[in-house]
Write a structure and sequence with these properties.
It comes from Brucella melitensis biotype 1 (strain ATCC 23456 / CCUG 17765 / NCTC 10094 / 16M). With 210 residues, the protein is α+β, with helices and mostly antiparallel strands. The protein has helices at residues 3-13, 22-29, 33-45, 73-89, 92-108, 111-119, 131-146; strands spanning 50-53, 57-60, 150-155, 161-167, 172-176, 182-185, 188-190, 197-199, 208-209. Strand 3 (150-155) and strand 4 form a beta hairpin.
């Protein structure tokens, strides 16, 4: 669990109107009591009205509400630009996720900040990616996330075809080659072949999860 999520959970657990000990919080959040003491001290230092002390327990004063999610101007611009880049270059699921994330962000922004989303004039050029290729990008992303092996048919620059098992440790978009092909470094092959670059137009068969 990320520390930010843990701090949020501590506040939620202290809303019940009764004392909660550091040991109880530590057991619920699966961390040490020392970590809980440090987190509570940090929350108190930022103005969260937590009363109590070590060995007795803690309680959150009534009426406290977490402030709404806030972003700075630069953060909003970065999120919008990133989402547009994913929409232009990402897979089907990734592009949909980027759009849905922007909708959620817009929903929690104050009214005066929402216009920054549509006013941001940073755009990603639309890539010439077929729907099939976008689905392949999603398949590679899932393989990276789950650590699974993909089986692909591949044609190299000399037009030699081969069947390969690959386990992609990550995907890095390098841009475009001189011939307009997208270059994406993705995988380690089995049997081992040194990492190499993949040209979308040179692939002759889609990856199949194995």
């Amino acid at each position: 669990m990320r520390r930010a999520d843990r701090l949020f959970q501590i506040v939620q657990h202290l809303r019940g109107g009764r004392l909660v000990t550091a040991r109880q919080l530590a057991e619920r959040l699966e961390v040490s009591e020392r970590t809980i003491y440090r987190d509570i001290s940090d929350l108190q230092s930022t103005g969260v009205p937590i009363d109590g002390e070590a060995g007795v327990g803690y309680i959150l004063r009534q009426g406290f509400e977490l402030p709404p999610l806030m972003f700075t101007r630069d953060e909003i611009v970065a999120l919008v630009a990133g989402a547009r880049l994913i929409r232009a270059w990402g897979g089907v699921s990734m592009a949909r996720g980027a759009e849905e994330a922007l909708v959620k962000i817009e929903a929690v922004l104050p009214k005066e900040e929402r216009a920054r989303i549509t006013d941001t004039q940073i755009h990603a050029p639309k890539a010439h990616i077929s729907m099939e290729e976008r689905r392949i990008i999603d398949a590679v992303e899932r393989a990276v996330d789950q650590g699974t092996v993909l089986n692909i048919r591949y044609r190299d620059l000399e037009s030699r075809e081969s069947q390969r098992d690959i386990r992609p440790p990550g995907a890095l978009v390098l841009g475009q080659g001189l011939d307009g092909d997208r270059l994406v470094r993705i995988a380690q092959c089995f049997p081992y072949i040194p990492h190499g670059s993949y040209r979308g137009s040179k692939r002759c068969g889609p990856p199949l999860p194995r």
